[in-house]
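Email to the structure team, subject: Peptidoglycan-N-acetylmuramate O-acetyltransferase model.

Hi all, the expression group asked for a predicted structure before they design truncation constructs. Nothing fancy, just the tokens so they can compare against earlier work. One-line instruction: predict Peptidoglycan-N-acetylmuramate O-acetyltransferase, return tokens.
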Amino acid sequence: MSDLTYERPRGRRTENLSHVPYLPGLDGMRALAVLAVLVYHANAEWLAGGFLGVEVFFVISGYLITLLLMSEWEEHGRIDMMAFWGRRARRLLPALFTMLFLVLTYTWIFEWEALGRLRGDFLAAIFYVSNWYQIWVGQQYGSAAEFEPLRHLWSLAVEEQFYLIWPLVMVLFLKRSGTRKLGMTARWLVLAALLITVATAFINYGGSVGTCETTPDAYWTVGDRCISKQNFLYLSTITRSSGILLGAAFAMVWRPVAIMRGPLRKADRLLDLVSLVGLVIIAVSCWWLSFKPGLGTNSFLFRGGFLLTSIATLFMIAAVTHPYTLSARWLGARPMVYIGTRSYGLYLYSWPIYQVLKDPTRAGLTGWQFLIGIVATFVLAELSYRFIETPIRKRQFGVWWRGLRRRRDPVPRMLATGTMFGCVGLLVAGSLFMSLADVEKSANEQSFEENEGATTDLNDLLGGDTATGTTAPPVATGPTTVPDTVPGETTTTTSSTTTTTTTTLPAEPVDYLAIGDSVMLGAANELSERGYVVDAQKSRQFGEIVPAVQQLVEKDLIGDSPVTIHLGTNGPIEEEDLNALLDALSPPKYKNVLLLNVRADRSWTARNNALIAAADSRPNVIVVDWANRSYECTGNCFAADGIHLSSDGVTFYANLIRSYTGR
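Reply from the structure team: attached below.
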């Protein structure tokens, strides 16, 4: 990109109307976008829609790359593909490979267990297919607390795929109509962006997304693999290309040099107003929109939210590419330009640094962690920009090395050589360890798999229908003795052997019913051995169980023994759902309904626990204060996320429930 700035037009005109002068206001826009993303990645509760900063990047990329290709065609009558791709490689690869090297080295030294899981992400990053890899493998449930340092590279993959394909497409357009008639082509790009928006609106699954089994309409099935529709819409190059296409279309009709030769050169005040409207739209969208598949993503996001953000970005581009606007002056100020020129490095390094700093028991960073992370990110991005990205982009490494060799003092040369050999050694060692490492499942994933066989799907009881593959509670083959204990003591059994069998569930009342989410799922084996019928599922929301329980009560398929319910970990509880459930399980038949409250550092926890506490006013409801009683557990009680149960936690959990139910 040229470093020239605008001057007021003089008598002579240059021939290249698509010439791209240096536009500092675009760096200012990049600064705003990357700051929004940095806050969002640190803690989504602080700025729920901060991810829209990536959409701003997409639009700017579409605009600038298209303008650069048009300028090259207009100046030379051709586009040198190899030179274009070479410039992109020199701009993007050095920082990416540096980040990958640092992540790999840190992981095999400090996060050995994650090395096998890193392999797929690492290879996908090298070949710029991270978005498709993440769509295919999905974000494994229970891995939120795991070390996942490369998950942010999906957006770079989208852009790189655009850089690879778009020059070829532009050559076809330019050969057909040249730069002067691309305005007609722009209409087709706008139409394509609108069609993509319409398609995403139809494909999008509204509401909260659970597992493939609980919300099958939220997934596509490819063989034995479930592909999340929302993940596809959010990550795929196809569905996220609408912003890029709009940016490209705008470049075809809004060329800064050409604009300054027409009547719009005097429209600076109008453009400032348009830019302000765009900024307000983006700011409100970042505050209002959210992407939380497990809780129910804001429905407008895939039904015009991304499109609106892209259009608002175009409003701002129109202003900052005009040299006389206040927008160009303010967003082109030195602090904004400084951040904008380093935005790539800031985005690249921030996520791995956050992953190192985060507390797995929390949903995001704390204020102090964020401050430390931001300082570390800016320092690392600056070092990368000065000593890696800029020298390679400007081809200065060769000059530096030749100068080093000519120096009489051998010490600098020896230090440089030693550093390079050391880095190569670390890279080789890390690569070897990563290639040989096993892909270890997280502790939560292992626990879920071990306990799922002890659960029962209550929907299979409705109507007394037999469901193939329904698992009945384990049947004890020998006498089992469970002595009276207090919560936290170890439960001993004598002559207990159990077998899990696949049988037909009888159409008769179920006693000692326990309904829960993944927290209860971790204790399903223990509860089942004690005689509970457990229906616990991953990602379950409170409202999902209400219709099934109501129907089971109507059909008299729930016995009069205590009913245990532990939900609310995965999202907000609606008061009407809680009331509907407790109305169904009302006295005189149901004398004891246990409600366990929530232990989780989530934004909805306090409200959920308040609703559960209020339910204690009902005569048959017993509120179990799991949020506080869980801290009485000693030993290996919880997984790294501080929510799900480990071995001692399972025993404590089951004993705590037994202290109320007697079983």
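Strands lie at 219-222, 225-228, 475-476, 498-499, 513-516, 533-536, 563-566, 593-596, 621-624. DSSP finds 26 helices and nine strands in the chain. Ping us if the truncation boundaries need rechecking.
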